[in-house]
Amino acid sequence: MATLKATSVLRGAKAVKVLLGVLLAALAFGFLLNLTIHELTKSLKAPTPSRLPASSYKERSLRLESEATANKNSDSTGSREQPKRGRTEIEESVSPTKDEDKAKPSNLRRQLPKCLIVGFTNCWTLTLSGLLSLHPDIVTAEREMRYFTLNYQRGNEWYRSMMPLSAPSQITVERTPNYITSNTALDRIYEFNSSMKIIALVRDPILRLMSTYVLHTRRKPDRPIFEHWCGVHVKTRNVLRYIDYATALQNVMARFRKTNVLVLSKEDLETKPYTVLRAMETFLGLKPAFSKDDFVYNKEEGATCFRTTISRYPEVKRALVPELDNRTGCLGSSLTRRSHPNINQEFLEKLLSLVKIHNGRLFDLINKKFDWTNLDDL
Length: 378
Ligand SMILES: *[C@@H]1O[C@H](CO)[C@@H](O)[C@H](O)[C@H]1NC(C)=O
Ligand SMILES: *[C@@H]1O[C@H](CO)[C@@H](O)[C@H](O)[C@H]1NC(C)=O
What we know:
This protein has helices spanning 2-7, 12-45, 57-73, 125-133, 156-161, 183-192, 205-217, 226-230, 237-243, 246-253, 266-271, 273-284, 313-320, 334-337, 345-366, and strands at 109-110, 115-119, 138-140, 165-166, 171-175, 197-202, 261-265, 295-298, 303-306, 324-325, 330-331.
């Protein structure tokens, strides 16, 4: 095209066309470059967790919770909630996964995802992906591909090449917990497959805020207190980013059919894994992978837990590391579930009234309520 046009460049009208084309291309390139640099800078800014001295019971229990998250962030598969080195992190090579054992080798191939876990960060998306991976009709990508955010220019065939092998009847699921907060990513997902099944995980916003605070500040020697990290006024971006799920979900609902969007809670995943698994199976049109008898109610933990005597328990343990307590078969533990840092009462009340507004928006949007923090619990 370019050389064809170059031959007639002396002709006035055509010269203008060529110029316009070049200008548009330059603009588009500049935009893409800008976007990439922006996302790269954002990922470079992402914090890395470190140790926190255990000085009080409350801090200790909070540390347990954040360590669980930190372990998850640095597990051997390279999956992290927060990107650290941007695009170079994803290698070209694909390592064989346990999912590949699920079907006969003859008809295995790599398939593009038909379901995405899109968010939210620090809401146990890795554990949800692990639970889903226990289903025989599901294969899950071992790492966050960040395809619709950072790696989009690599193209669909790159994305496919990064997926695990699967049988034709199996569904591939990918998880990147910050797709949901990027409108660009949501647009790209819609363009990729407008019928994509979208799963989002939310959790008690105040507990998410506190857990994120620990994760983001534990390495800092001059560690700010919770209230200062939030900002003097409750309505700072640092707070809203972690307590407002409704805005991001509205952006999802504006694009995708409601029947293709499933919103689950970390608390339900933790205390009712069987119910959550069934909800995902129904959502994806799959047969039940476990029976109710594979689970047992644990009074002490106040949770439904895997029966440790079932034959698939070793597989369960592998899939749900590190959140599974391998002794009890429960996800998380009562200690982390009840932990809170000290928060100034006045600040907390302001926070709670703000959270209430955003929870209301969320519950209206998804037509479902979660039993989250009230003042008496803290
Ligand atoms: C798009 O996603 C839906 C829902 O998972 C799936 O049934 C369909 O096959 C997908 N389309 C393509 C072209 O992959
Ligand atoms: C259970 O987990 C602990 C660490 O939490 C580990 O040391 C131990 O080997 C595990 N036990 C089994 C049977 O996997």
